[in-house]
Amino acid sequence: MKKVAFYTLGCKVNQYETEAMAELFENSGYEITSFDEYADVYVINTCTVTNLGDRKSRQMIRRAKKKNKHSFVAVVGCYAQTAPEEISQIEGVNLIIGTKDRSRIVEYIEQLKEEDQQINAVEDIMKVTEFEDMKVNTYKERTRAFLKIQEGCNQFCSYCIIPYARGPVRSRRPEDIIEEVKQLAQNGFKEIVFAGIHVASYGKDLKDTNLMDIIQRVHDIDGIERIRLSSIEPTTISQEFVDMAKRLPKLCPHYHISLQSGCDETLKRMNRKYTTQEYREVVERLRVNFPDVSITTDIMVGFPGETEEEFDKSLKFAEEIGFSKIHVFKYSPRKGTPSAMYPNQVPAEEKEKRSKQMIEVSNRSERNFYKKFLNRDMDVLFEQPVKDKKDYYEGLTANYIRVYACSKENIEGMIRKTVLREIVEGGMEGELGTLQKNCPLL
Ligand code: SF4
């Protein structure tokens, strides 16, 4: 049997697309194998968000050819989209596909067998207007499914290469989303995570639908108990959005709202389209309406021209908001983006120092968030057993607290009331049961 191996870099969207390509190969009679094994086809699904992504992608290309010099090596995804010429020069690359036409990958491999000549299938992504439907029918996980609803971004933040790698906003048709979610519900999935490059833009290119509409339609599907948004923009969380969310108990009170900087001058240079005051108002609106809401974010440190004073503002703002988690990134210039040419680039050691300070704020506020839930009973969707720990399971609350609890019964895929007892590394330790009726094991 022919074998194919995948190596995926980058985000959840890329992982989703790898799953979809793997299914296409399986349907054509291929067996999926590990990237360290001998295979007939190696697919590297690349990322280009940081320079590190590019370097790692190149390393994996070379590693694949070493495993089997007669294999076909396909380089696909964001790095392939932005640098096809560079990739075509790397020895051993047979096929290059960007962020479009990955659904044709098997077809291209068949063509390679006939022609034995490198194929560069990368097209100008800025001209693409259709969402490429790549369905995933089988998932490794059985409880939470990531569902790609959207592609592309029209925001052009000054540091970001993504709009050039993924092209303009394209949304998946509501009928296709509903069909896939119904299928997932039938297969036992309880939670759907809406994923995309810029989820907040869902529907901007379609008539008669938008993000609120699709959330409501998925909410009506029996069997689905939770809907989570992978990320959202502050500008999306209007009073109207909050009023809708209050009517939809399945919509998780967990919002990942990208901040990037807590300083207005820096935000402006980043070409972000909100101010810190607007952001503050959004957080207040959510907290007034959903007292248990978890707000997580991304913050970049060391953006060009970020003075000590600007960074200080950013740090204080992060402290004031009290995020339940901050993903801290050190700015890294991307060739082809406006900010790569900005003056006053911040030295590496300064970025390192700022990153540490921001991570400390994140750790403190994460702990404060957890403290609010000590000795409270919460619904936990248990996803899987904890590795190497007998009778232990881990799962998530709707507001994204990772919970570990003991159970003799297999509780994988079940939502169970759990009392949160203790803050532990990466989450909280809980006991199955409620405050009235504690864990039957104890
Ligand atoms: S919103 Fe900004 S940071 Fe996010 S993908 Fe679009 S351009 Fe990049």
Description:
The chain is α/β, with parallel strands linked by helices. It has three domains: 121 residues, Rossmann fold, CATH 3.40.50.12160; 228 residues, tm_1862 like domain (pyruvate-formate lyase- activating enzyme), CATH 3.80.30.20; 56 residues, OB fold (Dihydrolipoamide Acetyltransferase, E2P) (Beta Barrel). Helices cover 33% and strands 22% of the residues. It is built from 13 helices and 19 strands. The strands form five sheets. It has a six-stranded parallel sheet with strand order 2-1-3-4-5-6, sandwiched between helices. β5, α5 and β6 form a beta-alpha-beta unit. The longest helix has 24 residues. The chain is globular and about 70 Å long. The model has no long low-confidence stretch (mean pLDDT 93). The site of iron/sulfur cluster has 9 residues, from α6.
CATH class identity of the largest domain: Alpha Beta
Taking Cα atoms only, what radius of gyration do you get, to the nearest Å?
23 Å
Please report the distance between the alpha carbons of the first and last residues.
51 Å
Task: Give the count of helical stretches.
Answer: 13
Oligomer: single chain
Percent strand: 15-25%
Biggest sheet statistics: 6 strands, parallel
Mean pLDDT: 93
* Each distinct ligand: iron/sulfur cluster
- Shape type: globular
Find the CATH superfamily of the largest domain.
tm_1862 like domain
- What is the share of helical residues? 25-40%
